[in-house]
Each structure stands twice: as C-alpha cells, then as structure tokens.
Amino acid sequence: MTNMRLRRPWDLPESAVTPERAYLDRREFLGKAGAGVLGLAAISACDLSGQEAAQEGRLSKVPPTPTAELYPAARRDRRFGPGSGHGGITEEKIVAGYNNFYEFSTDKEAVWRLVDRFQARPWQIEVGGLVERPFVIDLTELERTMPLEERIYRLRCVEAWSVVVPWIGFPLAALLKKAEPASRARYVRFVSFLRPEEAPGQKRQTWYPWPYYEALRIDEAMNELAFLATGMYGHPLQKQNGAPIRLAVPWKYGYKSIKSIVRIELSESRPKTFWNDAAPDEYSFLSNVDPSVPHPRWSQATEIVVATGERIPTLPFNGYSEWVAGLYG
Ligand SMILES: Nc1nc2c(c(=O)[nH]1)N[C@H]1C(S)=C(S)[C@@H](COP(=O)(O)O)O[C@H]1N2
Ligand SMILES: [Mo]
Which atom of ligand 1 is nearest to the CA of 211? Predict the structure, then answer.
C-alpha cells in the first residue's frame, strides 16, 4: 500500500507550515533591512539587482505557446470574486514564488527555481471513464474552443495561508459536458503528470504515490464555481502554478486544486485521493474549508494573508457558501 511507503506523512504538512512562518518573518526582515541598506549605495545596487533578478525569474516561467494571443481574457461575470473582503489581488511575484507543488519540492520558495526542465507544452488532456464520448484534446485546441474568462478566487491552503489569484480559464462543467457523462457517473477523478526526469520531487521523494491524483463528486464538479485554469494574471499559467491546466475549486482546501492535469476520468465509485491516502486522519475526501473544524495539529479558524502577513478569519466554504453550501445537506 502506498500509505505504508510514506516515511513520515504526519510531519510533512507541519514542515510546510514552519517554513511559511519563517518565510513571512524573513520577508519582514528583508523589507526592513532593504530599507536600511538603501543608504549604502554601493551595496544596495547589487542587493537590489539580485532581488529584481529573482522577481524576474519567478515571473518568467510561462511555457511558450501559440495560444498566447488568447490572453488576457475578460472578467465576464463579476459575481466570481475573492470570497471574503480581505485584501485585493495578491501580487503575481508572490503567487509565482511561494508554491505547493511537491512534484518539484516541498520547499515553497524553491519550486519556481526547479521547473525549467518541465515541458508544459505541447500537452494533451484526456477525458474518459463513464462518458458517452471520451476524447483526447491538445491544450491549444482546448483553449481555442473554450470561452476563456477571468475569475478572481481566493486560494486557501490547509496550512492556513491564502492568496487571491486572477485565474483565466473555463468552467469544468463545460469540459465534462463535451464528453457527455453517463447517468451512472457519480465522481470525477483528476490525474497529474508522471515525469521524474522533469520533476526532481517525483524522482527524489519516492515514498509519495505519484502521480498526484484528486477527485470531486460529480455535483461538485458541475457547480459553476469549479473552474479549470489555463492562465493567470492575464497570461498563460506559470509552470510552478500548474501549467498548462489546473483545477481551481476555491471552497475547498488548496490541495484539491490539482495542477498540471493529464487525465480526467468519470466513475461510479469514489476514487482515492493523494492526501487522503497519505494521511486519512488529516485530509478528508471532501476537504471543504471549515473554520470550525481544526486540523488535528492546528486551528483552521484563521489564516495568514501571504502578501501582508496579516491574520484574518477563515470563512465557511472560504467565503463561497452562496454557491456551494446547498451541495452539502
Ligand atoms: N499536482 C499537484 N497539484 C497541487 C499540489 C501538488 O503538490 N501537486 N499542491 C496543492 C496545494 S497543497 C496547494 S495549496 C495548491 C497551491 O497552488 P499555487 O502554488 O498555485 O498557489 O496547489 C495544489 N495542487
Ligand atoms: Mo495546500
């Protein structure tokens, strides 16, 4: 069993929380130190160019694509917003430099530096299982046939931090409808890529049951909030954010929003999910954001806004109750 091969599943998410605190403290420190250093012209020039280069680096991981002209896409429906009123859109340099993407690294600040060998284009995605019309489609064709729109969603990680991201993409339901789900289909399963030669985390962390896999109930998948993103911040997705196509289900903890999807499969029985298999007591199948249910090792009542370090209350369903509360009677 994959569970058995996991070395220390219980300390992984916590190890992910600790660096986050360290990161925020360090950022604060760097901010202050940076201001102090400005007086020392000679040093600051080289420090700043180093920082700028790092920012540039984080923002430069967009895979080349012939569909770049489809971006940006318009924000068609203003109902789709960040869920809670706290804070605006997070700066892209933060969203592109602080990632959970274990295929590359468990160090959130290291992921963007490790994605260069990952070939996110060309890419195909397959839709199959209990459908009348299974298909395989090239990403460029998918982007051209789907009506791309922008949606601003809050992403709330189970580790109690959040960012607000302007995604570009289309409703998951639109893709599923193309395949004509069979009436027996009750669940939708998603699978990420398996390419250890391109993803150092897959190569080194052999105790994880690669490739990453996730699933939704079909009523959740058909909900208009469930979104497939192919872009962010007005351009195609950065690799570290799940290029070329990832899920965005903002009422659930971040790990449900699987990145770099290669296969979508409909089924009658409930599929397994990566984190539920790894630590079933800590990560449920549904994983809806719920401030009243603490994680076994920390509270979920509040979250850290990564951009500012501010602590804000976590809302039920991450602020998206009006869309999804009715799914859970
Ligand atoms: N394939 C894959 N998808 C994944 C993950 C991962 O490790 N692998 N991490 C998840 C987690 S825990 C979070 S919080 C979000 C982070 O998305 P971001 O880096 O774009 O902010 O991606 C989710 N999707
Ligand atoms: Mo997460």
Answer: 1
Tokens of 131: 């459908």
pLDDT of residue 52: 84
Interval between CA 185 and ligand 1 midpoint (Å): 26
Q: Residue 183 class from Cβ within 10 Å (0-12 exposed, 13-18 middle, 19+ buried)?
A: exposed
Chain centroid to Cα 55, Å, comes to: 20
Question: In this structure, is residue 314 part of a structural domain?
Answer: yes
Query: Cα–Cα distance between 149 and 124 in angstroms, integer?
Result: 21
Q: Which two tokens stand for residue 48?
A: 């700043």
Q: Which ligand is nearest to the CA of 255?
A: 1
pLDDT at 48: 56
- Give the pLDDT of residue 55: 86
The answer to whether position 206 is within a domain reads yes
State the residue range of the domain holding 143: 20-328
Q: How far is the CA of 19 from the centre of ligand 2 (A)?
A: 13
Q: Is residue 13 part of a domain?
A: no
Cβ–Cβ under 8 Å, residues 17 and 159: yes
Ligand nearest to the CA of 99: 1
Compute, in angstroms, the gap from residue 228 CA to the centroid of ligand 2. 17
Q: Which regions of the chain are under pLDDT 50?
A: 1-46
The pLDDT of residue 21 is 34
Nearest CA to ligand 1 atom 16: 100
Backbone phi, psi, residue 265, to 5°: -135, 125
Rounded to whole angstroms, the Cα distance separating 13 from 278 reads 11
Q: Does residue 269 sit within a domain?
A: yes
Instruction: Please list every protein residue whose CB sits less than 6 Å from any atom of ligand 1.
Output: 95, 99-103, 155, 157, 163, 192, 212, 241-242, 254-255, 257-260
Instruction: Let me know: does 64 contact 224? Beta carbons within 8 Å.
Output: no
Provide the number of structural domains found in the chain.
Answer: 1
Phi, psi of 211 (to 5 degrees): -75, 160
Whole-prediction pTM value?
A: 0.87
Which residue's C-alpha comes closest to atom 12 of ligand 1? Answer: 255
